[in-house]
Predict the structure.
Amino acid sequence: MSFSFEDSSWKISYDDDRFGIEHNITRKNSDIEINPASSDIKKRIDQNTLQKSIYLLDTERKNSTNLVYSRELATQYAIAHGAQEGENGYHEFSYNCTNFISQCLWTGGWVEVAGYYKSNSGWWYSGGWPFYAAYPWHNAQYWYEFTNNTRRGERIYNIWDLWFGDILQYNWTKGYTMDHSAIVSYRSYTGVIYMTQHTPNYEGKPLSDVVAGDVDGDWNYFPWRMYVNYEM
């Protein structure tokens, strides 16, 4: 990883272009310490532009073998919908965290995969009763198994290495079954990582504050680096 200062902006370059970090991690000086939960950053997310970008990306991914995950679109969706109640047209599950990150990933360019709804090989959303979505779409453990068996990302071992658009999963009881999923919605130049999630709903919570909630030290963390250029 290397840093450079160009055109009044800091740029961070990562060695492996699968992660798409070089062209994404660019922050102007005025952006460095902006809390993504503030109204300022939300004002930058023009919903019409976001919806047009999603439409164009969806059209492209249906007709292309070049599968691309846009960290920008995924995190823009997360920031826009993380704290709100309701599901922006999606079915809301009792435990809704993984459903929400799947919405972010789909917005960012993940292609749905057909499969039996109770298997870990399919990732899709139908929105219709009785099978609103495949288990990997809305269940944290099944999402873990699906992603672990595909080439859409890889496990990393330090939560402080997460970048925006990456996923963090948790186990609450020192085990290895996933209990929760959240997305990194922003990372400042100084390295502050902000998390966004559902159940409970919040947007732009510093990861340091999240970790501070583990008062008994019982949680296990499972961070994921998501590929920008991925395979089915």
